[in-house]
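#struct-pred

JT: dropping the chains for the assembly here, can someone run the whole complex?
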Amino acid sequence: MTVTEERPTVGFGSTLRKEDVRFVRGKGTYVDDVNLPGMLHGAMLRSPFAHARIVSIDTSAAEAHPGVKAVITGETLAGLNLAWMPTLSYDTQAVLATDKVRFQGQEVAFVIAEDHYSARDALELIEVEYEELPVVVDAKKALDADAPVIRDDKEEQSNNHIYDWEAGDKAATDEVFSSADVVVAEDILYPRTHPAPLETCGAVADMDKVTGKLTVWTTTQAPHAHRTVYALVAGLPEHKIRIISPDIGGGFGGKVGIYPGYVLAIVGSIVAGKPVKWVEDRSEHLMSTAFARDYHMRGEIAATRDGKILGLRVNTLADHGAFHSTAQPTKFPAGFFHVFTGSYDLQAAHCKVTAVYTNKAPGGVAYACSFRITEAVYLVERMVELLARELDMDPAELRMKNLLRPEQFPYTTPTGWEYDSGDYQKTLTKAMEMAGYQQLRAEQADRLRRREQGENVPLMGIGVSFFTEAVGAGPRKHMDILGLGMADGAELRVHPTGKAVLRISVQTQGQGHETTFAQIVGNELGLPTEDIEVVHGDTDQTPFGLGTYGSRSTPVSGAATAVVARKVRERARIVAAAMLEVSTDDLEWQENRWQVRGDPEKAKTIQEIALAAHSSLELPEGIEGHLDATTVYNPPNLTYPFGAYICVVDVDPDTGQVHLRRFIAVDDCGVRINPMIVEGQIHGGLADGVGMALMQVMAFDADGNHMGANFMDYLLPTAKECPSWELGETVTPSPHHPIGAKGVGESATVGSPAAIVNAVMDALKPYGVRHADMPLSPAAVWSAIQGRPLRTDLAIT
Amino acid sequence: MQVPAPFAYERATSVEHAIELLSRHGPEARVVAGGHSLIPMMKLRLAQPDALIDINNLSDLSYIRVEGDQLLIGALTRHADLLDSAVAGEHFPIFRDAEQVIADPVVRNFGTVGGSLCQADPAEDLSAAFAAVGASVVARGPNGSRTIDVRQLHAGPYETVLEPNELLVEIRVPIRPGGGSAYEKVERRVGDYPVAAAGAVVWLDGDTVAEAGIGLTAVGAEHFAAPEAETALRGRPATDDSFAEAGRIAAQHCHPQPDQRGPAEYKRQLAVELTTRALRRATARARGQEA
Ligand SMILES: Cc1cc2nc3c(=O)[nH]c(=O)nc-3n(C[C@H](O)[C@H](O)[C@H](O)COP(=O)(O)OP(=O)(O)OC[C@H]3O[C@@H](n4cnc5c(N)ncnc54)[C@H](O)[C@@H]3O)c2cc1C
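RK: done, full complex below.
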């Protein structure tokens, strides 16, 4: 590589992001930027109580408020049979409460007014009489005999139990455990967090009474899925619904599902006959939209005395809030949690998940977790760390000894996943080299010696984690959401002058699709990235597909894009053969041109071919003209990116403060289309991990009050808390993906929390601290040292 | 978007005008200075004043200067100005320490010193810093000016002894040579209010503490001060043991409230630890051993 290397414009490489031109100039169009003539504004009245019966609602004063056009309550919706809507997990959720409110912040009434201020002011004029009910805050008490039943709207429901689900071979696992030398167990909470994208949720709905066409600009990661759900739920004809997902200010899984506010904007537009905008504020967003995690896990790991891991089992209590609305493939109510055996070669594993209702917001979506893999990786990586402690073995060495070996791929895990490819030792070795692992251990030992001699130096901790992700949902025979298969379409048009338009079903929320997808096409056809426009986020303009979450864009839509570009290339071959007056068999794709074998002088570029394809050139059999093509990609398997992370912390035991000194991340996501974007995704994910590990939590007090409904309480990490990331890569292509790419959007979020927590626990080893739950705030660290660890899911008292 | 309830808005052109407007609009009117405490509370509708009296045009309330043996700080001085002030930093490094960890640059560019004190948030950093250095404040009302010891300014959480139509105009800090000062804070993340923080100022007589001032915030210290610990320290050797003892005494008189920043016992521990550290650093500075 030379320093003067030109930025590549054709094919893969670190080109600048095409979309950034509008973002950095403030020219993006987010939902709140959509303003239509005559548009009205909606505002939501929300419950102040976590659990209460609604005795009465008086909207008369609000209706009389200047500027107010309508006030919609649950009763209004019940008249339209819309008071309840289905969730993505085959449960129901109240659009507006009719009988009871079941979490603080639940939607109770919707005001439509001429401007946002009038709508908001009118909320205070709505009088709701509530009769407070006992609340279920502690998930561990949700199944107590005397726990109030939250979902008494469901006839069959006599308690707060949602489901029990298991995976793996229980008998074989028990067998392995009963004969193992060493068994380590720990209670581990992955606390409730929130995706917290900077753009909150919102919608502008416009029902055109003349044409009967409903257009909805909305914050969605899955516009096509939303269209179908609206059609099914509201009985609107699907061809008369257009969902536009404009620029989206972050999603992280929180914009997969449908929220009451979207439905109310639509109902409001139908009722008022004018466009209605509804955009929630920050507190509403944090209180009521989909949370993530909230898994109370009891993990157990079995091993031989010399450090061969034999088995893993986990019993999980999943807090789903008041409605079961997790977004995940139908067959897997706990998402992909059963990928929890991680990156290791085990004999047996078993997991059981029990889900319960509590008086908290519903959700449980991705949040950059690829369907619960964040929880799974955190569990196994904490358990391996605890095992290392028990065996008095170096945790990196223990991992190295048990990681799957390259020759074991494709590898079927004890719970049935087929990992596509990997060279784990290489990746971990690289991370250890970059970190200077042995020197770090020596420094740590030296620190301890100095502390023992009375010197006041901070404690030092080194944490390792190794993760395997399962992304790119998914094969249709195994995966659907609400009955919709998880395949994605792509359409590629090549205009006469050789400029191309790619239409894809996935929707960027910051991942850079407009650039990387253009690069995929460019790489296949030899077109400059600038010459390829990527169209997405509009159901009237793009083919059907399930959207962007679970790191599925590159594995599924990226594959569709490569396939459709190859179709175009094959059509071009026929045209080129006619142009060059040779047989197609005589042509080979060389240096971005169809070239006559052995004769580089005789060749045609896609641009030349495109013009010919639209011209009067006489075309052979099998092609009508033009080069355009469409495809649907049904992935044969998931892809399995992986990585090795090492974190170094300094801890002040007298204040509990953690300083993150270094973070080394070696990711293997297969072939990297745009390395710069990959690194950007990793930077963001690592920062996310810092947030969850050290500062983020949504706790609830005894009355069910949300303790973190703003950014002063729900903390996002800043550059100050993040070290300068040290990134490395290995490349193990996916054997079944057309370009060998695996997906990377969530890798760092999945892998980093365990590395950080392992590092802090490593630092606290001299105090005998084995485990403390996230977030490891100064108070949590200090309390753990005192032997009184905090329960981070409940308000601190 | 969070939007406040309706309110009237007036822009004051002079201190007298501000006082007149406050009198005219009555007790439900509020002064707005930087607005970084008041506006968020209005947006959350925790505060719903009838009228805002904007004092941002009163540039004659923005200054930092030494007069005689006092450092004078105008009420409308922005956090960023106090942070950057060479004269304040020279006499009282405690302000620089504190300002460096108050909020973020955006808030510091607009939030004011007077607003901080008048907000009377139980976790306000400057309240502790000014309590430590023994400041007083000048308030002006329809009947003229009065001077209030900063340790008498706060009547409780979010409450001062100022009348609704009184304006805080100046903060005065007595300068005595030979002292050192410092501020120590624990926060969950940069820009966060303190979990706990302590400020200290120390004057030495050789190796003995001649005089000390200790301010504490976010730990339920009455008037943000630790007078018992100050008394106990006076005349004691300037050693780690004395500082730790002062820290323990200070913490004993605190009434920390548990919240999401931590349980009470942890905040009490921080009161001990941070008081000790602030005293240690203030002493090092008094000895010229540290900048
Ligand atoms: C994101 C963020 C982070 C923050 N972090 C910290 C932190 O770490 N530590 C910390 O200590 N503070 C912190 N703050 C608070 C910040 O320091 C204060 O908001 C600010 O300095 C208060 O000053 P102001 O000029 O903005 O007051 P305003 O909001 O304008 O006013 C506050 C109150 O004081 C009254 N008032 C203002 N000036 C006068 C006057 N001259 N006379 C009489 N009454 C007056 C107002 O009527 C109002 O009641 C933070 C604030 C934000 C928004």
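JT: nice. Chain A touches chain B through 37 residues (CB under 8 Å). The CA atoms of residues 226 and 258 of chain A lie 7 Å apart.
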